[in-house]
Each structure stands twice: as C-alpha cells, then as structure tokens.
Design goal:
Elements: E1 17-20, H1 22-26, H2 36-48, E2 53-54, E3 57-58, H3 71-77, E4 88-89, H4 93-101, E5 106-112, H5 115-122, H6 129-142, E6 146-152, H7 165-178, E7 182-187, H8 194-206, E8 214-218, H9 225-234, E9 239-242, H10 262-272, H11 280-294, H12 301-307
Parallel strand pairs: 1-2, 1-9, 3-4, 4-5, 5-6, 6-7, 7-8, 8-9
This protein binds 3-hydroxy-3-methylglutaryl-coenzyme A and magnesium ion (MG).
Magnesium ion (MG) binds at residues 25, 186, 188, 217, 219, 250, 259.
Protein name: Hydroxymethylglutaryl-CoA lyase
GO molecular function, one term: hydroxymethylglutaryl-CoA lyase activity
GO biological process, one term: L-leucine catabolic process
C-alpha cells in the first residue's frame, strides 16, 4: 500500500499548513557538514514536492552552529518560485543585518521558556533574551519583514525537569506583544504528551493568545509527536512544523532527536483527507536521496516503509 485509505474524522481542520524545518532544524544537528549545493537541491526538491513554507537556514553565530555557517551562500544559490515562503532563524541584530543583506523577507526569533536553555542556547538569561529580541523585531518589522516567534522547552527541560505552564505563556505572550505574527510552541526534547498540549493551548487562549496565532513544533524523541499534533489539530491549530525524513535535533539541548517527520505527518493527514498540497511520493524520494547524502537511514517510519 503506497497511500492510506481515506476516512475523514470529525473535529479536524480541512486544510493545514506544513512549516518545513528540515533544512534548518534537521541539518543544524548533523555531524557532517552538508555541501551548500546539496542543501540547495534539498530545498528545491522540497518545494517541488509541494511544500510552500521552508525554513532554509539560520543567521546565528557560525561558531555556535557551524553546520549552517554557509547561510548567505545558500540563499544566493536559491531561486524559489513566487509565493514560496523561506524564513530563516535570527537571534539578534547582527543576525538580522546578515539576513537583510541576503534579501530575506521572513525571520524567526527563538526564545527559551527556561533559564538553563536560555544560557545554553543563547548565552543569555530568561529576561535578557528580550533585550536581544526587542530591537531585532522592531527593526525587522520596520523593514516590512514577517516575524515568527519560537518558544523552546515548552513541555519539559533536560536540566530543569517540569516547566511551569505560566512561565511558557509569559514568554510566548511577550513575543506576541513584540509583534510576532505566529508562535511556534517547541517541544525541543520531544517529551510532551497530549494532555499537556491541550493545557498549554488553553492557557495561551486564556492569556489572550488565540489558537489562530499558534503553531506546534514537536520533536519525536519519545514517539509522541503525531499524537500531540493530532491533539493540537483538535484544539484548532492549523500550522504544524515538521522535518522531511525526520531529520533534526538541537545541538544545545541534551537528548533532542529529530522533529516529527513530514512523511509520517503526511500519511496521517492524507488518511484523514486534510489538504496540504504536498505530494508524499515526491517527498519520500527526496528524503531517501537526502539520507544517502548523509550516509545514514532516515528515522521516518513512512520513509522506511515506502523508500525500499
Ligand atoms: P554570544 O557569544 O553571546 O554573542 O552569542 P555576542 O552578542 O556576545 O557577540 C560575540 C561575537 O559574535 C561578536 O563578534 C558578534 O558580532 C558575533 P566580535 O565583535 O567579537 O567580532 N555575533 C554574530 N556573528 C554572526 N551572526 C550572528 C552573531 N551574533 C553575534 N547572529 C548568540 C549569542 C545568540 C549569537 C549565540 O548564542 C548563538 O548564535 N546561538 C544560536 C544557537 C542556535 O542556533 N541553536 C539552535 C537553534 S534553536 C532550536 O533549534 C530550537 C527550535 O527548533 C525550537 C524547538 O525545537 O524548541 C527553534
Ligand atoms: Mg526544533
């Protein structure tokens, strides 16, 4: 069977947007440094498969993430069709300068919900991260850019354990107040379970951040990503982050493995008749090709089942 039988279910959206993070969240964590031409081909193939939003790279400090040090060179090689959104990660004004020089129109800033991860990932504190983000977002908006805000460690932190829900909501609400059009709620180490997802979305709603502003971002370390995503859809979320082939992790988060694989997500969405515009077969071929480039099998169950 190369596609699931279509049976719709109640209480789900007709259409969702897949925000593809493989080239950024995936490749930032590979021990091998992937050649810039291979990255460009990867992105082109993802777009060819029907993905319309692809996070391409990061303008972070090249010593912190050497895998993405070629960000400017990569963007120069890309010539994406009109209408394809190609956001990049930017932590600070220096990153914004570099992104603007490369012609970027959409950025994502990334905040931590915990003190320890703010230190490890941003060399900052929970509070001081906003001193970095505020001028960055203000300038980006003044330049007409769109700004997404990530919140990391929403459901658990490898150093601090449980993360209080109001702490997550406070960080997220501050990003929205700064002008982020969308918040992506990151399960950076893949520990969340569905009850937490519902509780967090409800808590944001009570704090005035409606579900229309929320996206979800699950890593699949504990095999919970699909269940959590379906829970988010039932709560009204319609934007989901995933990574082709299940590539990914975070170099500054202990035990983080790959993101929810786009193919695994797509199998579920296709079965439920939820529209995405993405072609599963083309995506599987792309991830199998990328796995060859990386010299290791894709962790995606659907790629393993279909690529053989
Ligand atoms: P820092 O060392 O504190 O930086 O790092 P600084 O502001 O003190 O500056 C030191 C030097 O770095 C200066 O140069 C700056 O110009 C330069 P000097 O004057 O000494 O010659 N510099 C830069 N150069 C290039 N690009 C820049 C940049 N910024 C400063 N952007 C910093 C602070 C934030 C830069 C650093 O901690 C960093 O780059 N962190 C990024 C870590 C990262 O990328 N992590 C992975 C992404 S997050 C993630 O994966 C989670 C997510 O997927 C969601 C989830 O799963 O939860 C999004
Ligand atoms: Mg991530």
């Amino acid at each position: 069977m190369r596609k699931p039988q279509l049976v719709k279910a109640e209480g789900l959206p007709d259409r969702v947007t897949i925000y593809e993070v493989g080239p950024r969240d995936g490749l930032q964590n590979e021990s091998a440094i992937v050649d810039v031409a291979v990255k460009a081909e990867f992105i082109n193939r993802l777009v060819e498969a029907g993905l319309t939003t692809v996070e391409t790279t990061s303008f972070v400090h090249p010593k912190w993430v050497p895998q993405l040090a070629d960000a400017a060179e990569l963007l120069e090689q890309l010539d994406l069709p009109y209408g394809v959104r190609a956001p990049v990660l930017v932590p600070n004004e220096r990153g914004l300068d570099r992104a603007l020089a490369a012609g970027v129109r959409e950025i994502a800033i990334f905040a931590s919900a915990t003190e320890t991860f703010a230190a490890k990932n941003l060399n900052s504190t929970l509070d001081d991260q906003f001193a970095m983000f505020t001028p960055t977002v203000q300038r980006a908006l003044a330049e007409g850019l769109t700004v997404r805000g990530y919140v990391s460690m929403c459901y658990g932190d490898p150093w601090e354990g449980d993360v209080p829900i109001d702490q997550v909501v406070k960080v997220g609400a501050r990003l929205v107040d700064l002008g982020c059009h969308e918040l992506s709620l990151g399960d950076t180490i893949g520990v969340a379970t569905p009850g937490q997802v519902t509780a967090l979305i409800t808590a944001f709603d009570q704090a005035g951040v409606g579900v229309d502003k929320l996206a979800v971002h699950f890593h699949d370390t504990y095999g919970q990503a699909l269940a959590n995503t379906l829970t988010a859809f039932r709560a009204g979320v319609t934007t989901v982050d995933s990574s082709a082939g299940g590539l990914g992790g975070c170099p500054y988060a202990e035990s983080a493995t790959g993101n929810l694989a786009t193919e695994d997500l797509l199998w579920q969405l296709d079965g439920l008749g939820i529209q995405t515009g993405v072609d599963l077969e083309k995506l599987v071929t792309t991830s199998a090709w990328m796995a060859k480039q990386l010299g290791k099998p894709s962790p995606s169950r659907v790629v393993q089942a279909l690529a053989g």
